[in-house]
Amino acid sequence: MTATLEKRPAKRAVVRAGAFSVRLYPRALIVGVVLVLIALTMALVNLTTGDFPVPVGEVLKSLAGKGTAGTDFIVYELRLPRVLVTLLVGLALGASGAVFQSLTRNPLGSPDFVGLTTGAASGALIVMLIVGGGGLQVSAGAITGCVVTAVVVYLLAFRRGVQPFRLVLMGIGVSALLEALNSYLIYRAQLNEAIAAQVWLIGSVNGRGWTEVVIVAVTVVVLVPLVVHYGRHLKMLALGDEMAVLHGVPVERSRAVLALAAVSLSAGATAAAGPIAFVALAAPPLAARLSSSPSSGILPAAGMGAALLSAGDWAAQNALPGNDIPVGVITAALGGVYLTWLLFHEKRGARA
Amino acid sequence: MTAVLTAPPASPHRQRARRRWIGFAVAVAVLFVALALSIAIGSRTIDLSTVWRVLWHPDGSAESAIVHDLRFPRTVLGLGVGAALGLAGTVMQALTRNPLAEPGLLGVNLGASTAVVVAIAFLGVTTASGYVWFAFAGAALTSAAVFALGGTGRHPTPERQILAGVSITAVLGAIVWAILVLRREAFDRYRHWDVGSFSDRDSATVTQILPFLVAGVVLTLVLGRQLNALSLGDESATSLGARPARIRALGLLAVTLLCGAATAAAGPIWFLGLAVPYAARMIVGSDQRWILAYAVILGPALLLGADVLGRVLVAPAELPVGVVTAFLGAPLFIALCRRRRLSSL
């Protein structure tokens, strides 16, 4: 009996040490590590490029604390905050998307769709255009908007339990409502304020400082381990509530913790960089495809998010010479192309 | 036997038929009320008897000028756009057999927006009547693309179609944003068009889109019977003598005509195409011919009502009608989704 239990398919390995045991999926692990490496490489490239190109060696020296004052200024004050925000926001969005898609059992169940990013945008726009605040207040507004929207969507979708598809529908309804509010707020604003708001709405990492780094870093450091810890239960939850209960999963608690953490991750990301489209939607399935598993792990998805966003930021800086276009434009374009490709590719399959 | 004939037991069929006719009469009455209010109410409210008098006998007074130059074109525009969007939503839902299909959600609105942005930013087009052709081309291209992506295949599911709409919306949205960030003066024009409004459209716009509207409406109403056949599924429809491919092509043409014309004239208006068929289906059941007939009446009634509401709520300023429809339509959508099971199509 024990022999058959221990004889697992070759694609996973179990590490046991006393009461502690972890199941490892080598391919997912490799994919995750490779993605993180890609993200870091892109980050390094982003540190070297810009109005004043700095060679890789100088950048590394600066990072090690042995650089000249000039490169230190460029690296620490101008580029590093932006690069870190990009990496961390990518991580947060990827993880949040993976949790959402698996909780809602729907590829559309990403924060973009259940209305969270639109809600965050409304919160931020209200602060910017009606209250007239800036900086941290805008971030606070975004977080408030995101959380309030999440609660409203959840309550609307709640009817003897939350049905995943209804959740997505409610999200579409609520976000259309907020979208109208947003475009009205922009319509009635002064032109300059409206442009600033529009740039924020697209999602950008231009000119981000250490404040934003701290916001999103705290979010990621606190919540990603939590999400990974509870993420063990996602596979069981995907089999249905009864199944999960039978296997000893604390269903309601896991779901509540996961949902709350995913909402907060997306809120933190949006507060730092604005509503960046499509990373949360595209990163998890892309990671799943690479690791050839039916559902993506949270960490590969997070790595994919970071890699995508860093690459996107590089493209945003270099796509149009002399123009630093918001990274949200790039991610939306890439995400859209990816989805289109997916639809063509899977035309014969039954998967939506 | 005679007793049975003189007092027939109300069969479910007959009851439903009666309900349809009564509902239709009510809808028409509501539409007339909306038309009257739309002409009478505004920053300067004119009482109905005066409206009636100056409508037929323009006397050069201020009231006459307001009615003829401002309110009347605006009301006619609302009538046309409302009917177009209501019908377009109905046809889209019938073709895709997707209760969530809607010009806004499927990306057709944004297709039109993109073309308009390109027109504003690169070709220097500045008038609403100049936008028409671009909006039209944009809507046509996008609806064709969305249908090709999401409407075919072996298992076209509602999610898949919405996904197709969303992916196209994303690509187009990125293009729009990129252009607007680079061209700030275009942004200023665009934000006024994008909100969906009737306020600065003139009668030239109406005459320009009118042929397309009429063609689209006629085509749609003619298609009603075929749409019924299509709702049984492709195989059953074929065995009944219908030709699904042709119906789809014609339906797509109708949607393009209607959405392109409506969006060009009024800017993107969300949720009307979703709410109208839903409401119609609640009253009449699943017969597409009746749903279409209701959509022609309910669409303008709803849109004009929303427009009037937008003028009243924040008077003397004005809420753009697109905002009002979203605020009215979204809660309705949410309520409907909560109440019914989604497999209603």
TrEMBL record, chain B:
<feature type="transmembrane region" description="Helical">
    <location>
        <begin position="162"/>
        <end position="183"/>
    </location>
</feature>
<feature type="transmembrane region" description="Helical">
    <location>
        <begin position="21"/>
        <end position="41"/>
    </location>
</feature>
<feature type="transmembrane region" description="Helical">
    <location>
        <begin position="107"/>
        <end position="125"/>
    </location>
</feature>
<feature type="transmembrane region" description="Helical">
    <location>
        <begin position="245"/>
        <end position="263"/>
    </location>
</feature>
<dbReference type="InterPro" id="IPR000522">
    <property type="entry name" value="ABC_transptr_permease_BtuC"/>
</dbReference>
<keyword id="KW-0813">Transport</keyword>
<feature type="transmembrane region" description="Helical">
    <location>
        <begin position="131"/>
        <end position="150"/>
    </location>
</feature>
<keyword id="KW-1133">Transmembrane helix</keyword>
<keyword id="KW-0812">Transmembrane</keyword>
<comment type="similarity">
    <text>Belongs to the binding-protein-dependent transport system permease family. FecCD subfamily.</text>
</comment>
<keyword id="KW-1003">Cell membrane</keyword>
<protein>
    <submittedName>
        <fullName>Iron chelate uptake ABC transporter family permease subunit</fullName>
    </submittedName>
</protein>
<dbReference type="InterPro" id="IPR037294">
    <property type="entry name" value="ABC_BtuC-like"/>
</dbReference>
<keyword id="KW-0472">Membrane</keyword>
<feature type="transmembrane region" description="Helical">
    <location>
        <begin position="76"/>
        <end position="95"/>
    </location>
</feature>
<dbReference type="Pfam" id="PF01032">
    <property type="entry name" value="FecCD"/>
</dbReference>
<feature type="transmembrane region" description="Helical">
    <location>
        <begin position="319"/>
        <end position="337"/>
    </location>
</feature>
<feature type="transmembrane region" description="Helical">
    <location>
        <begin position="203"/>
        <end position="224"/>
    </location>
</feature>
